[in-house]
Amino acid sequence: MRTDTTLAIRRSDYTEPNYLVETVELGFDLDPTDTRVAARLTLRHNPDGRANDIVLVGDDSLELVQLRMNGKPLSRRAYRLADNELRIPNAPEEAVLEIETALKPEANTSLMGLYVSNGNFFTQCEAEGFRKITFFPDRPDVMAKYKVMLRANREQYPVLLSNGNLIEEGDLGDGRHYALWEDPFRKPSYLFALVAGKLVCQEERCALADGREALLQVWVEEGNLDKTQHAMESLKNSIRWDEERFGLELDLDRFMIVAVGDFNMGAMENKGLNIFNTKYVLANPRIATDSDYANIEAVVGHEYFHNWTGNRVTCRDWFQLSLKEGLTVFRDQEFSADMVGTDSGRAVKRIDDVRVLRQAQFPEDAGPMAHPVRPDSYLEINNFYTVTIYEKGSEVVRMYQTLLGREGFRKGMDLYFERHDGQAVTCDDFRAAMADANGRDLTQFERWYSQAGTPRVRAETRYDDASRIYEITLSQSCPPTPGQKTKLPFHIPVKIGLLDAQGRDLPLVFEGDLSEAPTTRVLELTEASQTFRFTGIFGEPVPSLLRDFSAPVILEYDYSDDDLAFLMAHDSDPFNRWEAGQRLATRHLLALTRAVQESRPLEEAAPGVATFIESLRAILNDTTLDAAFREVALTLPSEGVLAEEMDVIDPQAIHAARQYLRRMLARTLRNDLVAACNLNATTGAYSPDAASAGKRGLKNVALLYLAELDDTDSHAMTQAQYDRADNMTDRIAALMGLVNSSAPGKADALERFYTEFEGEALVIDKWFSLQASARTTHVPDVRRLMKHEAFNLKNPNRARSLIFSFCNANPARFHAPDGSGYEYWAEQVIALNAINPQVAARLARTMDRWRKYDRLLAQLMKKALQRVAEAPKLSKDVLEVVTKALA
Ligand code: 0A1
Ligand code: ZN
């Protein structure tokens, strides 16, 4: 197997660019099979650069047609072109380079650089796609001003868009037309974008805080204009929110969002021309669910917020990716929370975000691809758009706010922009701004950027009746991760409260400090172990630890079942109220899993389970709680989260245990669940607002519990909801209930669904993904679905809807004991590798945790990994993932 680590790019090797680019003029003659790009770059030697070599990068797919420097053609001896590098040695201090390249956009299935989707042209340049367009110092610390001329056939490509402002447009006489765009801001090449084709837009003028007006546009294919309103609303809300919360304004006269059906990721923040996966733009009640609506709001916000955190201030190099991504995820999370408005709504948003972190980031941090928030090396940067960079990165930013307070955090942000607007900087620069603006020493906080792995914080408590002192001792440790055997202590904010016997928060007075007595405090854990003492505590309290999930750690404390039930009923911190329920559920589910493994009767395996279900009944029926909160409280930890709790993962046993508890819950709470369905039926026109979505969420959780009973009553209920649904949230929930049951109407419902939505790609994705993750779906069924006329491996959304859903969201079937799921996985990784390495590498990550499975499964998984590793023409993307998995 090839394990060429010499190809690795290292953070410690960073050097300044030799040359800086001042201006970039690009002329595109767009043609699907033969596009010509004429680039004119003005370069100047960088006084901090080393040599007088101009170093440009170009992808293998590029054909160099012409190269001129300062007006003269460069002879073949004047430059070197090898290994994707074009080097002009001994270049003058100032140089004008004219480069002509030829590209084949239609043949570009990688969806990086310039490509064609449904007959229209799009670009994707982050991280290293610009080198598929022209030779360029394609690195984020080279920032230039761009002017872009687009020429194309008018009939086929009536719309021509690029970054910034439209300067001029007109006819070229030969059936072609042109548009000239100019971006007034300097930017790195990864933010360049163009779009050309048959598109239509919804547009609005929007008043900005400083009195200016901006033109907002959402561009889509014809026929989709009835699905742009929510994205437009979300954009306007984002603009207002950034003005109010951070004093940041839109700096352009025009801001465009364009939707594309073929896209590797969620969306891209190109300056003034955001390009989005259709999944995060298109919505109406017929096709989109409540969570689609929420995701659209979050992603529109995310890309818009990048305009300051990412574009105005960008990254010095790709190791600093979390500088923009962690910060921007934090901003979009806060935006979504503020849009809900209520405290309880904020808590549910927090719970959702923490669920993602635990479900996806904790396993990453414990597996072969574990890396620090600021990685030290990579083979392929595309593999580092990870949940660690994004979600853990956001948690790191959130900890600044927890430590410094909202105002302190804002001061830090202000100083960051004051110092670095227009620059390409590092995570250290951000930390320095936070520290300096607040007069704080955040030296130790750096370890959150440099050390990988999820820290564990163990709490121990002691109450002394005589002195009325309550002691909390916190100890931290962090497991080894690849390349990092030992870890130094982190600076961890641990937010806590103490509950008295009535469930009320106690005033927290530190020993020797009577100056204040808040009911929630942030303890700063900086040593391996530290003790905190509280005085004046009359009676032993129940501690509420890590409130609001104040740090991305695993908190261990020996709570009794009674303590947890008590917190579940009384904690004033809604996050911890939810958390207590999850801890109890996990405890019971793990006990049940062990019983399944040992073929012991499940009825006796988890004695406390009946009491737990009663606690859930109380929450379900407590109408003083928001429906959305009751929904998350009733949702059991996922099979993936439970897997992480086991030393040796047994997917079948976990599944059986979880299904057993779901059925038991359904049987015990049957009447309450039916009542919840009736009480939370929404009436009138569909609205995606948080309160209505919460009601639908609770109702559908209840319905899906009832569906577990798989009897005529539950069949009738699900079928009725399916037949009557007037929105996608209710429809898809009902379909899920039917598909996972033996209801007689299930095949018919699936077929009707397909016929009704055949023309809506995003809905057909749901149709595939629902079947892929169904309990009744086995490997041969997925193979059959791959032959369906609507399946298309080249479209990432479609590939994800079927292949990824099966491999990642259907653990009990994917991990079939005969290894057939793994063989299927290997085939698909290899097939995708030839089409789209980025998507292939994502799928390859499925096997990250193979070593944690029992020996038989692990061996089969290893075999599948080896098969991929030995496949011919493996991309760097896939190679990196499988090599690290096997290492
Ligand atoms: N910066 C984008 C994510 C993104 C990264 C790479 C891409 O290439 C296929 C596309 C998008 C974001 O954070 O939204
Ligand atoms: Zn981003």
Major beta-sheet overview: 8 strands, mixed
Outline the low-pLDDT stretches. none
Helix content: 40-55%
**Number of strand segments:** 32
Beta-sheet strand percentage? Answer: 15-25%
Rg over alpha carbons? 28 Å
Structural class: alpha+beta
Mean pLDDT: 97
Assembly state here?
A: single chain
Gap between N and C termini: 11 Å
Identify the overall geometry: globular
Bound molecules: O-methyl-L-tyrosine, zinc ion
Helix run count: 26
Strand order of the largest sheet: 6-5-9-3-2-12-15-14
Tell me about this structure.
The protein is an alpha+beta fold and 887 residues long. 41% of the residues lie in helices and 21% in strands. It is built from 26 helices and 32 strands. The longest helix is centred in the middle third of the chain and has 34 residues, at 387-420. The protein is globular and about 85 Å long. The structure holds O-methyl-L-tyrosine and zinc ion (ZN).
